[in-house]
Each structure stands twice: as C-alpha cells, then as structure tokens.
Amino acid sequence: MMLSLVILGVLVSVVHAEFYPTYPNIERCVGLPVQYSCENTTVTDSCCNVVQGGLVLLAQFWNTYTGLESHAQLLPKGSWGIHSIIPLNCDGTTAGQYCDPSRQYDPKPSPSTLSNGTVINPYKGPSVRQFIQEFGRSDLLNYMDTFWINQGAPNEDLWAHEFSIHATCTSAFDVACYEPGYKKHQEVVNFFETVVKVFQMYPTYDILAVSGIVPSNTTTYTRAQITNALYSQTGADPWLNCHDGTVLKEIRYFHHVLGTEQYGHFKPLDSIISSTCAETGIWYYERTPTSEKAD
C-alpha cells in the first residue's frame, strides 16, 4: 500500500506492508468431537486435532552468549530463550524430520541426510524473515528478534530450521488446513505465532527466581530444586537437559493438545524422557554481561 503525504511542502511516499491473516480454516472444526491428542484414536480431521506429532514439547534455551554480539544479536534479559515446539509420537519417539521437502527453508539442514537416506538440500531462496515481513507482522518479527535468538548465525536461520524440521511433521500446519484462500508461506508465519504463544505460557526465569534459583557462577543447584520449582507452577515435571550432566542449558515442557496447536488447549504432562542432568551440582550460569540486551 502506497500513501503520499505532504510534509512541510515536500511530497513523501510512505510504504505500508499489507496485513494478511495467517490463521487456518478452523471453521471446518465446528461440530466435530473435541479431544486431546494421544488420548483418542477416533480423530475425524487432522487439521482440527493434532494427529501426527501428538505429544507436543515446548523447548526453551538458556544460552550465555550468542557469538554475534558485535552484530547486536543479544539475549533477552531476565528471560530464557525460545528453542521451538517439537512434535513427538505419543510414545515419545520422533514424529519425523523435514517431512515435506517442498517446504524446506533451512539454509543449513541438520541432519543433512535422514535415516532413510533422503538428502536434505540447503535452501537458497528468500529468508523466512521476508515471509514474516510480507504478512505485515513487524510485531511478531520484533518479538522473535528479542526472544528467539540463534547462536553463531542469524536468528532467521534458526527459525527456518525449526519450521522445516518440525512444523512439516505436524498435521495442524499442513497447507490443506489453510484452504480455501491459502497464501504462500501462511503456515510458516502461523507456526512462528504458535511457538510464541506457547513460549509465553512458561516464564521459566521468573518461576525459578521466585524459588531462589537464579543464574550464578558460584552456587550450584540440585535437580530436585529445579524440577520442584517448575512443578509448583505448571503441575508437571519438565525435561531438564544439561551439558556434561552439570550445566543447565535447556528445559522442555510436555503436553497433549485439545484441538489445534494454533489455538487449542495445552495440557501439561510429566516428561516421559529421563533428564540428562545429574541429581546434584547443577550449574545455572550467569550470562556474559555484554551478551544481554540492556534494560
């Protein structure tokens, strides 16, 4: 959309990105049975309920640096960072990776070859950042640039990886769920919106802090201290991931989903995967001061 304004006698052209809706067609879901994923096998529409990848994880990172501080790519102060939402089969096995090569936007696929021998070629087209801009979602882009931070590469490379490896293996983000009237890359932007929505359910930093668990280079914590603090506010035990068993780096929250991932209800569940963290002596390190955004 192009608008022309006269400011102090000078004609100025202002370009506004058109705002396009990103939601799927859930009108088709009205009147269908409402059920949690993995808890009922009589699903009638895979766009209305999570079928493939029904055990849904929300993963958050605790990184202490980005490697791109000189490019102003900084970590969010007083918050954990987004990793992704990750679909698993109901038994905890993988729901697949890079399930739709036609929607592969990852410039550095990992893995580059799947277990069945399929080679995943690097994507060389426009960035997913451009996809978001084309939908007029500067608000979403700003939020992602604040809380969804990559290490050692541009943020959009991480976003593209997470969509390509995970969203393509989740039934609710199939292109068919956005018909009629599908606009190219609509489901990509909608996936990013969904990740942000679920991330906002879990203020991990604050939950830990109010229980006296704060980043420290001098004090260690027990696994029970961390899980008990999180359980007290979520009602479920998450999965803790530690580097070398002692450096806390990731937390994953488990769910079954009522309805769609985009707008349905996420029911917290205990992790069904064993933690990689030791029982005692867990470090929750402070971040490098120059790696965090200023207040």
UniProtKB/TrEMBL annotation:
Gene3D superfamilies: Ribonuclease T2-like. GO terms for biological process: RNA catabolic process. The keyword Zinc does not apply. Residues 1-17 form the signal peptide. Keywords: Signal. GO terms for cellular component: extracellular region. GO terms for molecular function: ribonuclease T2 activity; RNA binding. The keyword Signal applies. InterPro entries: RNase_T2-like, RNase_T2-like_sf. Pfam families: Ribonuclease_T2. Belongs to the RNase T2 family. PANTHER family: RIBONUCLEASE T2. This is Ribonuclease T2.
